[in-house]
Model the fold of this input.
Amino acid sequence: MKEDVCILIPTLNEAHTIGEIVHKFKSMGFSNILVIDGHSTDGTVKIAEDAGAKVVTQKGKGKGRALQQAFDMIDEEVTVMIDGDGTYLPEEVDRLLEAIRDGGADQVIGNRFASPQKGAFTRLNLFGNRILNKLFSLAYGAWITDILSGYRAFNKKSIKELELNKTGFEIEVETTIEAVKKNQKIIEVPITYCSRHKGAVTKLNPLRDGIKIGYTIYQLTKTHNPLLYFGIFGAIFIIAGIGLGIYVTLEWLRGITRIPMTIFATLLIMMGVQIFVFGLLSDLLALFHKEVMREVKKR
Done:
C-alpha cells in the first residue's frame, strides 16, 4: 500500500542530509518522493534528484508557501511530510501511517517530546515550544503536545479541507489549527527527535519566529474562540480604566478633582465591557456555526 503514499520533503540548503533521507525512504519501498525546494544554493536539488526524488522548486520563499504549493500538486491518498534537515527518522514513518490507516486519523503529528536525543532542543527552544503548546491548548481546547512538529501525515480529505495562508514557519501551527477548526481527527504518535547534523544550520529564529507563531495562534482564535480573542482586548481596557480610576480616587482624597480623567476612566471601563460582551455574542455564533457544520457533515 506504499504506492498511494507521497513522501513530501521541504528543503532549503539541506545538502548534508537530503540524500540519506531519500535513500532511506527508497529502501523501504516508497517510490513517490517529492522534494519541494526553496531555492537551495548548496547542491540540495542535484543530490535529491540523484537519490531518486522528484524535485520541484517552489514559487516565492518560505516553508508555508512551499507546503501550499506541494499540497496543490499531491493527489495520493496519504501524504507524509518530513523536514529535510535530518532531525526525524524515516524508519519511524510506519507509526504515522498506522494511525491514518488503522486509527482513522485525518492528521497525525509526530510528538518530538516523546524521545528527544541529547542536544536536539536548546533550552530556549524547549521553553518556547512548551509555552506555545500551552497557549494553543488554552485557545483551542485541543490538548496537543507538539503543535510545531515537522513530521506529520495527512489523508487526502485533510489536505483538501485545509485553508492555509501562512508563508513561514507558522505553517505547522496553522495546519494544526485548521484541523481543529475543521473537526478533523488528530492523533499524536511518539517519535525520535534527533540532534541537528553538524553541517546543517537552522533557518528558524527562536525569538522572531516564536513571536510570529504566538501571534498566529492568537490571531486565528477570532473565528474559533472569539471570547478569548475579544476578551483579552476587553480585559486590557477594563484594567486600564480601573487603574486610572484608582489614581483619580486617590487624587480626589487629596482634594484634587480630575474630571477629564474620571470621564476617560469611565469610558475605558465601558468600552472594555462592551468588547467583552461582543466577544461573548461572537462566541455563541461560532458555537452555533460549529454545530450546524457538524450536522451537515453527519448527513
The beta strands are 5-11, 33-37, 54-57, 78-82, 107-116, 151-155, 186-193.
